[in-house]
């Protein structure tokens, strides 16, 4: 397997050491003072590409710090690893795989040879099948077993086989087919599926069983329930072929489950689950918005790939976002990162980015097996910014630790929503300003004087009414929320994650950390059914299993 050129650990890199010194020197500096001292700051600290404008002037960095961050990317080998990824090298070394989600959005007709195989040709062939199938369902050519049109599509999948298409379907609802409803089922507790099935007509429902491995317990459990439900109504196995399709890399398991492999859409082991929404995993979205618009999503992502591949680091959106993120996590000691979209359509974006970022870079060991020696993936969290403002933004403004924020706004909006859109936008910009600028004691005191408060009350309240400010944020403005720009936005975050992984030296494309819990769940499940005493666990776990055995009833 191709080994990366050995390089010192991240923290030994000269740029890292210089950044450490920079950070100490800048400890007392306030972003507001940087703005006051440098009228060109905002003008310099923005960049745009693919319909996305990024203002990063409200970060706790000055020009020398930024220069060192770019140097860090160079010393860490970002350009070389980027070339290796785009070239189809097996950069997912722990699994011996290439990493080619970028090939999923390459234009038909281009080529990318991996092990003698043109992967773009393979991708285009599946894309064509997705096109034909989604068009047939949307236009009524594909019908249920009793000849009626499909009205409801249920995607059964979890993690990467759920979050991407679900997030995108929510974001692009304005482009949705009017008579096709999309549903997403992931939770194994059965509640969501049970509630949903009660509202569906089996004759007009299509299930997509989406699982890269087709071994995922949650997905197969839900798929089996759906299968029984359908058979219970349709009465014949033949109905399965009209109501179940699969998206997977595992043909044998799909066949074993009882789905005709003619109704299976494949993808490849070089597509990570959390990077797979561009593959046939995006089938629910293709059904919702149509194949042409799905192509636009791919084109937007491809445009961002080209930008990431070709733009100099200093103008490269993913590189800039990645380096600022590293600065915040490792030098400003910010353990989390808030994603705050100010557009209801993006309400599942934080959940999507949680998997993308934390399953990728939530590692403490480098690709070469050595300890990382610095902090990696921050906790990604959030929901729509406006709701967050009335829930947890208090902590952002006055809590003890900085929470860097990505504010995400959309410029274009429907004319009839103009008044509301203005309010949402004003709030977003104001929050970023308030976090950065804060409110100094003199300002707070003057306000209270003006409001007629007695001096004694002012003195008592003053510490509570002061905002330190100096809290970093990025603001991303999308020209509009359409398939193309959404594709670019998601690709932007994918590449940001990649760059961070390279700098930290971890492999962003494996996820061994999810295995132990899965193994133990299998053992616990067996022990829950045992009538005899169990002692293979610690006392706490044993007691919990015991309590379940005594207390759980149907
Ligand atoms: O358990 C984590 C994980 O393997 C994710 O990486 C993946 O996206 C998810 O489970 C679902 O996996 P699959 O698509 O194979 O069902």
UniProtKB/TrEMBL annotation:
It comes from Thauera mechernichensis. Coiled coil: none annotated. Gene3D superfamilies: 1.10.1390.10, Glucose-6-phosphate isomerase like protein, domain 1. Pfam families: PGI (PF00342). This is Glucose-6-phosphate isomerase. It is found in: Cytoplasm. The keyword Plastid does not apply. HAMAP family: G6P_isomerase (MF_00473). InterPro entries: G6P_Isomerase (IPR001672), G6P_Isomerase_C (IPR023096), Phosphoglucose_isomerase_CS (IPR018189), SIS_dom_sf (IPR046348), SIS_PGI_1 (IPR035476), SIS_PGI_2 (IPR035482). Catalyzes the reversible isomerization of glucose-6-phosphate to fructose-6-phosphate. Its main location: cytoplasm. Transmembrane segments: none annotated. One of its GO terms (molecular function) is glucose-6-phosphate isomerase activity. PROSITE patterns: P_GLUCOSE_ISOMERASE_1, P_GLUCOSE_ISOMERASE_2, P_GLUCOSE_ISOMERASE_3.
